[in-house]
Amino acid sequence: MATSTQRLLTHVLGLRTDELGFDPPWGRLDAPVTRPRTQPGHVTPASTGLAQPVPGAVAADLAAVTVAHRRLYWTVNPVHLHPAVVEHVRLGEPILRRTTGSVGTAIGQALAESALLAGRIEFFDLRAPDRAAATFVRAMQFAGDAEDQLLGAAILAHAAFVPGWAGQRDGATERVAAARAYARRGGAPALFRAWLDAVEAECLTRCGDTSAALSMLNRAQSELAGDSDEPPPLWMDWFTSVRLDAFLGNTQLAAGQIRRARQTLSDVLAQLPDADVKQRPVVAADLAAVEVAAQDVPAACDRARQALDALAEVWYATGMERIRQVRRSLRPWQEEQCVRDLDDRLYGWNTSLSALCG
Fold this sequence. Notes:
By secondary structure, the protein is mostly helical. Helix content is 70%, strand content 0%. The chain has helices at 3-13, 45-48, 56-72, 78-96, 101-125, 129-146, 149-165, 169-185, 190-206, 210-224, 241-254, 258-271, 279-293, 297-311, 317-329, 337-346, 349-357.
């Protein structure tokens, strides 16, 4: 990996180069480097004698599996998909280490995307942020091998969620700033730039600065209102203009703009395609939170049940987390029948088992 990429990782992620699995190209301060290090299980041509060229068909096959996993993410239980994605990366890494040229670039891109998907599952579906943070580091290493600026930007932006959701504003904004630099070098299209704005806005919202978040979302809307028709990368299947409005509705809710949030989120729910099964419970739960804020308890329970119906299709830990937040906000009314009925759904066998497994 290029030295500049290694330096960025150490600066943005706050880890020493050797903790990231590299040998510092500028030398270690605590001990001299006498020979190259390898990670446990790391395969190199020198250690195996496999220095033969890798056929281009191998790269194509690895990329095909990556694309299949990308599509399966929206319909398959992430608890079941995650091990397959991780094993795919493990399979491809030793192949990448004995590959150069365009074939190596293609393999690096495939593994970077797969590692990014693994990190997304760990963060959003399994709610394991520490594990996701480590996986994003591996993804960034593969993107560096491929010198893919846009994949690097996507990985850094996802990594910003880790401190952002924990309320650590400085860490989140620094990672987004790094992502923006990569996006500029990679000639990011308008939709990608708008997504970076949305990522920063969500982090700002979770850090309590809804005013700055709303300004950022207005900028994202302006990005999409431009004349650029350049399509995003094929792997960027997690963001649309409708999802931008979902970010906006959540921030309006956090800002206390109840009527605007209700209208925005209702429009989003009506416009979401049937295939967007993971966003649906999140939006429905946000609408339930809107009704709690308006003290319309029956409407809040109806929306929460709607969110649970969506979760029954494909499990999504982030969606369940939003529903639980709604239920906690309903404690002042927990003796009302509609809240008890919601509890029967929320604490049923299927939901409880999914929550324990996921």
